[in-house]
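Researcher: Go.
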Amino acid sequence: MDPVTHGITGALIGKGFFSKRQHQVAIFAAILGAVAPDVDVVANFTGDPLAIIKYHRALTHCWAFLPFFAMLMAWLTPHGLHLLQRRYERLRGLESPSFGMLTLIYGVGIASHILLDGMTSFGTRMWFPFSSTRVAWDLLFIVDFTFATVLLVPQVIAWIYRDPQRSGSRALKMWVLFTAGTFVFWTLARAAEYPFHVRSAVIASAVLAVCFFAPAAGGLGARVTRAEWCQWGTVAAIAYLFCCSVAHHRAMIRVKTFAVQNHITVNRMGALPIPPSLLDWGDAIRAPNGIYAAQFDLRTPAPANFRFIPDSPPDPFIERAFQLPQVHLYWQFVRFPSILSFTRDDHHIVELGENRFYNQRQRSPQPFTYQLVFDPRGNLLAQGWLTNGMMRERMENTARHANGGKQADSSP
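Model: Structure:
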């Protein structure tokens, strides 16, 4: 899950359940706890090209470390607040909750992060260090704008009706802003060739109008407290996740039906969420000789059109690739891998793909595609991530020549 959604979740929890005692510091603690586990991304700056799958979502994302992480942050908070109060006079009236209360708030925030990451297809190693298996319930896409909106809207409604005299203008501004954001998202989804119809954006705008303007009737918006709005927002978020689980179950029925009808030997199968809504899914089957993949809308009753991506036949270059420790680590991370071996110019290339985030409309390399380049004698010349538009920040070419340690482009 993206850091912004984690932060919005922390704010919702803090405002809904911890804002009665030293509310400003409590809300800040809930937000900080909800985003803090992603501090492990600093490992990406170590120069290790595989840091994102080696270190990310491990120690700081596990239940075993949570109590110690929460207590450390609770211990640091009063000291940090004291330093800020010495520098900024406007903060001198703030009080910090007790150590026990701060530990609880941070613990809840961290727990929300772990659970939300577990609901994505990327998954998280929540049972680390006892197990390195990634828990992935496949309910949410890594960046789920619909879920983030469900979390954010109750907080915005509470802000709108905090001042009854300005509620009308605030509601209008927020509706215009959110509607513009909806159409920006629609534009981005279309550019990425994900199925997001314009009528969906229109419906979303209408729903947002009801959310922002309806509480004005009978003064309801002013009578409901911010904590109550956020508590109802938490209920709405849980209800959305329940709907995602129902949709996931229906998508799994389709993939199981296809496997049975076509007598496929299944190594692994899954139903994977894709943007932009809980009605859009991708089914994947890892068979001994390749991958079956499909994308579909649950509203379409017709059977999903599966595409078969065959593995290349075994050869010495594939065998050589799987002797490398980097490939062993990569193979532990992937869930629906594909193996492609081919010759280009005077080089032999082994390309390992991850179809967990597969977009059948996307022509550029899929996210988390790892490539190895060999000379005709089987000597490794280069290896690394193929650059992809969705993951350009992290998926940079990182290959090095086997001899001499000089930087090399992963494309021959």
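Model: The longest strand covers residues 280-287.
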